[in-house]
From TrEMBL:
Comment on bound cofactor: Binds 1 Fe(2+) ion per subunit.
PROSITE patterns linked: GLYCOPROTEASE
Entry keyword set: Acyltransferase, Cytoplasm, Iron, Metal-binding, Transferase, tRNA processing
NCBIfam families: gcp_kae1, T6A_TsaD_YgjD
UniProt domain Gcp-like: residue ranges: 26-309
The protein, known as: tRNA N6-adenosine threonylcarbamoyltransferase
A cellular component annotation (GO) from this entry: cytoplasm
Pfam families attached to this UniProt entry: TsaD
Coiled-coil stretches: none
Function of the protein: Required for the formation of a threonylcarbamoyl group on adenosine at position 37 (t(6)A37) in tRNAs that read codons beginning with adenine. Is involved in the transfer of the threonylcarbamoyl moiety of threonylcarbamoyl-AMP (TC-AMP) to the N6 group of A37, together with TsaE and TsaB. TsaD likely plays a direct catalytic role in this reaction.
Main location: cytoplasm
Cofactor dependence: Fe(2+)
Gene assigned in the entry: tsaD
Organism whose genome encodes this protein: Candidatus Buchananbacteria bacterium CG10_big_fil_rev_8_21_14_0_10_33_19
Length: 338
């Protein structure tokens, strides 16, 4: 089975090729064109600008992916594309490109839920013991997902306001550290004191599996008004204190969910899964419970078409798409399969 996958949900234009031979699954190309440098001057992603650059980049990225994989259109069984959630103007570019190629190459198209693809990145070359709990953390999402099988899952918790990644970016902006803020805050935190500033752990004892990070961001703002950060070490300490507060909440909720639902496996997904502190501390907490722990390779944490291809492969094992029967995972709050 050979799959061409396309991802344009935000500001990365990506195309990937997945190949399966005799049960061996491999992502043989995963090309990503990032727009980070373009959006830096605005302090965040501007949807209209992102869409225009997707239009410019989509064809060269797809062609490079095909060349890297040494494949031609005739080699593919179908095309997979992100259909949501994401920036609508960005998604349209990828979906229309996939539809156009589907018509030109006479190939079916499978629409993929972006968040399912993030967690599916853990399936590649890993034996998952179900049930599993997935912590999905990114710039726009913070969710806990109960997974009964590769295609059976249910959202059990989510952020009620800011996502974890969004909070990182906003705190970076408060500290005038630049964009994207998450990696910068994490890097500065490595040289900081996590106990220097007392910050809240929102909803840690709420009794459910929802999250809230807006209040934590506001707490940082109030601290900055109370205390004039005098030097670089003060900034490092604030970053470390903030990061530890986020990590503590994420870990406590995830472990609580694993216990309640009798999970055998816990894994991470999403852009914030690249955060080294969160990866290390969550893994330690999971191992204390004698559970399996997985986290994707760094290249599959941020938005990329490789994870779209992996998700499509596992869905195709259940139902191979045909020209008159596109299979789609709805981009709705409950992540229900059609």
């Amino acid at each position: 089975m050979n799959i061409l996958a396309i991802e344009t949900s935000c500001d990365e234009t990506s195309a990937a090729v997945l190949s399966e031979n005799n049960g061996v699954v491999e992502v043989v190309s995963n090309i990503v064109s990032s727009q980070i440098d373009i959006h830096k001057e605005y302090g965040g992603v501007v949807p209209e600008i992102a869409a225009r650059h997707h239009v410019k980049n989509i064809t060269p990225v797809i062609m490079e992916s095909l060349e890297t994989a040494n494949m031609k259109p005739v080699d593919f069984d179908f095309i997979a594309v992100t259909s949501g959630p994401g920036l609508i103007t960005s998604l349209i570019v990828g979906v229309e490109a996939a539809k156009s190629l589907g018509v030109a190459w006479n190939k079916p198209v499978m629409e993929i839920n972006h968040m399912y693809a993030h967690l599916a990145a853990n399936f590649l070359n890993n034996k998952i013991n179900f049930p599993a709990i997935a912590l999905v953390v990114s710039g726009g999402h913070t969710e806990l997902i109960l997974i009964e099988d590769y295609n059976q899952f249910k959202k059990i918790g989510q952020t009620v306001d800011d996502a974890a990644g969004e909070a990182f970016d906003k705190v970076a902006k408060l500290l005038d550290l630049g964009y994207p803020g998450g990696p910068i805050v994490s890097k500065r935190a490595m040289a900081g004191d996590v106990k220097r500033f007392a910050l809240p752990r929102p909803m840690q004892g709420s009794g459910d599996f929802n999250f809230s990070f807006s209040g934590l961001k506001t707490a940082v703002l109030y601290k900055l008004k109370e205390i004039d950060l005098q030097n670089e070490q003060d900034v490092n300490d604030m970053c470390a204190s903030f990061e530890q507060a986020v990590v503590d909440v994420l870990i406590k909720k995830t472990i609580a969910a694993a216990k309640k639902f009798g999970a055998k496996t816990v894994f991470m997904a999403g852009g914030v899964a690249a955060n080294k502190k969160l990866r290390q501390e969550l893994e330690a907490a999971v191992k204390e419970q004698s559970l399996d722990f997985f986290v994707p390779e760094f290249q599959y944490c941020t938005d990329n078409a490789g994870m779209i291809a992996i998700a499509a492969y596992y869905l195709a094992k259940e139902k191979m798409p045909t020209m008159d029967n596109w299979q789609k995972i709805k981009a709705d709050p409950n992540w229900e399969l059609e």
